[in-house]
Amino acid sequence: MRILLPLLILFSLMLTGPALAVQRHLEITWTAAQYSDVTIAGYRLYDATGNNVCEINDPNATSMLCDVEVADNSTTFTMTTFSTTGEESPHSQPFTVYFNDALVPSIQYAQTQNSFTYSFDATGSTSSGTITNYTWNFGDGSASSYESVTEHTFVAAGEYTVSLTIQDDTGAIQTTSVQIAVTDLSNPNNPPVAAISASTTVGTSPLTISFDGSGSSDPDNDPLTYVWNFGDGSTATGAQVSHVYLAAGNYTAELTVQDSAGATASATLPVIVSAPTDTGTTTPEPTAIISLNSTTGTAPLYVTADATSSTPSTTTGTIVQYSWNFGDGSTGTGPIASHTYSAVGTYTITLTITDDSGKQDTATARVQIMTEQQYKASRILPAIYKLLLFNKK
């Protein structure tokens, strides 16, 4: 009796994270012919060094999940099947898996002398293989472009989302996007003026400070957006915000305002936080908890983040501040916050809570936005291994 495998093997791959000595998750499905004089016992997956890295001992199985260590952006596998009598088929033809995270799109752009014309360059994109397709979407309803380097003229000033989708010779697809503020150079924009005031700038930790940027102005009377950087790794948006400094140190709070034409201005304020007197006691800490209505999907994906299960440091305390960072430059506040992801990628949602004693805790959760192709692959596992058994002559 011989147990044989065909030469053609396809694979199904799900992965996240960087491609350097990490564990990859493979999901394999197959169909197998059955013969009356051969009893299948199971199936095995081997890596390039001949190690059995995954095995299932179920003759009726049609799929298996395999976690394998991979130290590069690609790796090679073979497969076998084995019988109840201990016989094992020869190894299949080796097949190489290229990981999608080796495909990284890059957008470089510049405004030309014509104020509405921009040049776009995707040649900085990288792949473990060869990039075969470039698709530009300029976010203004115009036709797409399919060159690695291209030009586009917008018909009016405004904010546009320009996206680039690339595909390589392994079939992997990735998309990235940039926000562009198109301005008319014949009517130059005057930059805004940033101004900060604060309830205090000196105190002991935890030090709660109310910041106010509403004194900022714009000579053209354009509406302003407000982004705060508190100098301790925390950020916020809005004209008026509150922040708690937990650790002693010297900090610089910075406000950046931006007008509707994209011009920015910044102002800073020094903050001095001293350590509190040590009482020699240990107090409990608050606990931040995130619950998401969805963690995977295709863009645009509407995600609701719920922090109502979070708890303060004491049973009689309350949580006074919920700060959300959705990992794509967007932020939010409140116990329940919603956000729509519009671009493919993996995002880390960060929740920071502050209770009425000034104590904080942080929790994170991940959301993966896939292309239609990736999402369908993750749900229906289109790749099939065909394992055939033949009688030994």
Automatic annotation (TrEMBL):
GO terms for biological process: calcium ion transport. It is a multi-pass membrane protein. The keyword Secreted does not apply. Keywords: Membrane, Repeat, Signal, Transmembrane, Transmembrane helix. Its main location: membrane. One of its GO terms (molecular function) is monoatomic cation channel activity. InterPro entries: Ig-like_fold, PKD/Chitinase_dom, PKD_dom, PKD_dom_sf. GO terms for cellular component: plasma membrane. It is found in: Membrane. Residues 1-21 form the signal peptide. Residues 125-183, 192-280, 313-369 form the PKD domain. PANTHER family: POLYCYSTIC KIDNEY DISEASE PROTEIN 1-LIKE 1, POLYCYSTIN-1. This is PKD domain-containing protein.
